[in-house]
Amino acid sequence: MVNITVFCFLASYLVASVLEVIRLRGKSVINLWMMKGFAAAGLVAHTWYLINRAQQTNLPPLLSSTHDWLLVLAWLAMGKIFPWLFRLVLEIAHPGTHWS
Fold first, then answer.
1. What is the Cα–Cα distance from 73 to 90, expressed in whole angstroms?
2. Which end of the chain is less enclosed by CB atoms within 10 A, N or C?
3. Closest Cα to residue 42, out of 75, 3, 86?
């Protein structure tokens, strides 16, 4: 897990986002599980990247650079804020639709 780069979790997040958009056209259980799988893989890779970065600098992730601050904020957004914000926008765009 030492060779994880920003591209690894960015690509996972991008695939999960594309699958979320595709899911708007029709509900598919396979698509839902693939989307959740890619999002989870991205979050795990992102977490490992932050841990490796903290070990390399011997500092907690927030103290080493602006780069790390932004990565931690992105990690928080992906883990907590992003899914809820995206669903809120979808609910506003298509009221009454159940987004499971």
1. 23
2. C
3. 75
The distance between the two most distant Cα atoms of the chain, rounded to a whole number of Å, is 49
Token pair of 2, please?
């030492």
Distance CA 70, CA 68 (A): 5
| Amino acid identity for residue 97 in this structure | T
Whether 10 has a pLDDT exceeding 80, the answer reads: yes
Cβ contact 68:74 at 8 Å: no
What value, to the nearest 5°, has the Cα angle with vertex 23 and ends 95 and 49?
A: 110
In whole angstroms, what is the distance from residue 78 CA to residue 88 CA? 15
Please state the rounded mean pLDDT for residues 38-52.
Answer: 84
Q: Kindly indicate the confidence band of residue 100, based on its pLDDT and cuts at 50, 70 and 90.
A: low
Q: Please compute the mean of the pLDDT values over residues 57-71 and round it to a whole number.
A: 76
Q: What is the pTM of this model?
A: 0.68
Name the DSSP class of 2.
T
